[in-house]
Structure formats: C-alpha cells, structure tokens
Amino acid sequence: MSKMNRTFYVIAFLLGFLSVNGQSEIERKVLAAKDAAAKADTGWTTGASFGLDLSGMGMFNPKVGAGGNRFGIGGLGRVFADYKRGKVFWSNDLNLQLAAQRTQVVNTQTVNGVTSTQYRSDFLKNLDVLRLNSRFGYAIIGSKIFAAVDMLAQTFVLPTYPGNTLQPINDGEKSTARFLNPLTLTVAPGLAYNPSKHLSFFYSPAGVRFINVPDDRIALLTIHGNEPGSNYFLGIGSELKVGYNNKFFKDKLSINSRLGLYSNYLKEPTNVDVLWNNTIDIQIFKGLSLGLLGELFYDHDMKVQIDRNGNGVFGETKATNTNLVSADELAPAASITGAFLLKYSRIF
Fold first, then answer.
1. What is the C-alpha to C-alpha distance for residues 139 and 149, in angstroms, rounded to an integer?
2. What pLDDT digit, counting tens, does each position of 149-176 carry?
3. 249 phi and psi, to 5 degrees?
4. What is the pLDDT of residues 246-297, one digit of tens each?
5. How far, in Å, CA of 177 to CA of 39, rounded?
6. What pTM, to 2 d.p., does this model score?
7. Nearest residue to 258 via CA among 273, 244, 268
8. Do 145 and 7 belong to one domain?
9. Residue 297 CB: number of other CB atoms within 10 A?
10. Contact (CB, 8 A) for 346 and 79
C-alpha cells in the first residue's frame, strides 16, 4: 500500500470516528432533552400520608387526687392525585383531621327546681375536618401562567353535641353539627401563576362561596354561616391563594404552607375570611416522620366556641331552674389548631 493510500485510510478512519462520536453526543443530548420533557409531563402522580396520635392511661381504684382513666385517639390523613401533561395540570388534595378523647363529662339536669349532677366518661371531639381542594389549569402564557378553576369543599365527619361530645349528655339534646351539615363549597375561576415548583399563586375576582345546612333544626341555630331563616348562604367575592412547599437538609425537613383569603362583595367585604394551613415534617426514617400542624381559620359569618370562663371546656352549658343555658359564647373569632404526631408517607 502506497504512502498516499495509508494517509487516505487514516484520514477516513479519523473522520468516521469523529462522526460517530459526534452523532452519539447529539443523540445523548436529544435523549436527555426527551427525558427532561418526560419528567415535566409526568401524567398522574398519586400518594398518601397518614399520621396517628394515640394516648392513654388506665387506673383501677385510683387514689384520691390521682385522677382517672384517659384514652385519646386521632390522626391526620392526606391523599393526593396530581396530573400534568403539556399545557394542562390538575391537582387534587383530600385531607382529614379527626381526633377524640374519652374523658369525664358532667351531666347536670334540673327537674322541678331540683338540680342534680352526675359524672360519666364519654368521648369529646377534639378535631373534625374533611376538606377537598381541587385546581385545574391550562397554560396561556408560557409555562407559568394558567387560566384556572379552584374548588374547595369542607364539612364534618362525626356528629357533635353540646359540649363537643359525640353522644348527648343530657336528655333531649340534639346534634349541633354532623356530616354535610354544614357543607361549605367555594368555586373560583381565575388565574394561576406558578413561578417555580415550590411556589404558587392563584387569584379569582369572582369566587362563588356556598354554605348549605340541609337539616332544618341545625340551620335554625345559625352558627354555621347560613343566613337566619334560611338553610344556605351565597357569596360572591375576591379570592387569593398562596402556596409554598420545599425540602431542606437533604430532604430531612419539609415545609408546606397554604394561605387562602376571601372577601365577599355582597356582605361586609372588609371582613376577610382566612384559612392558613402549615405543616412541618421532620424525617425520622424513610417514609416515617414527626409531623407538626398549625392552622388558623376565620370566617366572619361562622361562629366559633369561645371559652369565656377560662376553664378549658368549650361549649359548656349550665343549669337554671328552668333550662340549660350556654356558659360560654358562640361568636365570630379566629380559630387556631395545633397538633404533633407520627406520620407515614408514600408516593404510589
């Protein structure tokens, strides 16, 4: 083989080598771009987390001053299902907060002017919230601004009687709340802005809020936001929601905060309703964490229990010579909830 031919083959080999490697590099970039796009268009992502709060103490013939039996059980549950594909996203979040404790309650009755007092153990409700939040959006400007519709539904799960018991204490007592009594539903069309995966904003200039109390007897109490003499309440107003979530310290600490503000154009628009939910999870083992919950709720149309005598008992009643009257007060005020518990989380 001549020197010219050897030179030709060497050059051809080098060009082929460079061409193959250049093509491989291009292919790798294309594949990487496809992988990134696939991760962005995830389809459905589902998961759940459950937290348990369990406490108890048993005593048989306790000493004077030693107290009595105590048993409490409660927990938080969350199930979510999120969809993302192309310009569309749909997020769904179902939350349950439920807790009760068995403790000593007082049964005071007045018959023919004679008042008698009995003590018994019964379950008191500590926490009861069932909440569904759903938001659907379609990208209209880039990948961060969406035309969206936000929906929030909220109700109770267990019945509640005066004094927050799960069963009536005194004869003739009726429930003050139960499943779907009341049901609060807010549907708000507007704009969603998601500047990052950690932060989201939503605003609606025309959010419709509907409160329904189907039970006529409970509706007559007018403590759940329904109008006097009616089973429902209808409002149209401005709604703003802000959400933040993030993880720190190699995913050992996670924070989730959601703030919702609503102003009703039709009635006292300066009284802004607030729902601010915060959770902090500190990972102990994979999937197992210590959860901290803090929530602030205020709705000027809804009455909450205020412990006026400061004895730590809410919804307390006292007996007169004729009937039972409230010792505490039902009025609009901020309601604050705090809890800590063990949580197990998993993405399916």
1. 12
2. 999 999 999 999 887 888 887 777 889 9
3. 50, 55
4. 999 988 999 999 999 999 999 889 999 999 999 999 998 888 888 888 999 9
5. 45
6. 0.75
7. 244
8. no
9. 19
10. no
Residues 183, 230, single domain; the answer is yes
For the chain, the distance separating the N- and C-terminal CA atoms, rounded to the nearest angstrom, is 66
The b-or-e profile of 11-29 (16+ CB within 10 A means b, else e) is eeeeeeeeeeeeeeeeeee
Encoded amino acid at 19, one letter:
S
| Residues 49 and 23 reside in one and the same domain | no
Residue 111 bridge partners (DSSP):
114
Instruction: Find the CATH number of the domain harbouring 174.
Output: 2.40.230
Evaluate whether 146 touches 139 at the Cβ level (below 8 Å). Answer: yes
Give the separation between CA 55 and CA 342, rounded to whole angstroms. Answer: 12
Reduced 3-state DSSP string for the chain: CCHHHHHHHHHHHHHHHHHHHHHHHHHHHHHHHHHHHHHHCCEEEEEEEEEEEEEEECCCCCCCCCCCCEEEEEEEEEEEEEEEECCEEEEEEEEEEEEEEEEEEEEEEEECCEEEEEEEEEEEEEEEEEEEEEEEEEEEECCCEEEEEEEEEEECCCCEECCCECCCCCCCCCCCEECCECEEEEEEEEEEECCCCCEEEEEEEEEEEEEECCCHHHHCCCCCCCCCCCCEEEEEEEEEEEEEEEEECCCCEEEEEEEEEEEECCCCCCCCEEEEEEEEEEEEECCEEEEEEEEEEECCCCCEEECCCCCCCCCCEEECCCCEEECCEEECCCEEEEEEEEEEEEEC
Task: Please state, in angstroms and rounded to a whole number, the distance separating the CA atoms of residues 148 and 135.
Answer: 7
Looking at the structure, tell me whether residues 140 and 232 fall in a common domain.
yes
- CA 157, 160, 164, 170: dihedral to nearest 10 degrees? -150
Residue 177 CB burial class (10 angstroms; 0-12, 13-18, ≥19): buried
Tokens of 39: 């991760």
- Domain range for 13 is 1-40
Average pLDDT of the chain is 79
332 prior amide bond cis, ω within 30: no
Instruction: Report the number of distinct structural domains present in the chain.
Output: 2
Q: What is the distance between the alpha carbons of residues 247 and 271, in angstroms, rounded to a whole number?
A: 34
Is the CB of residue 240 less than 8 Å from the CB of residue 202? yes
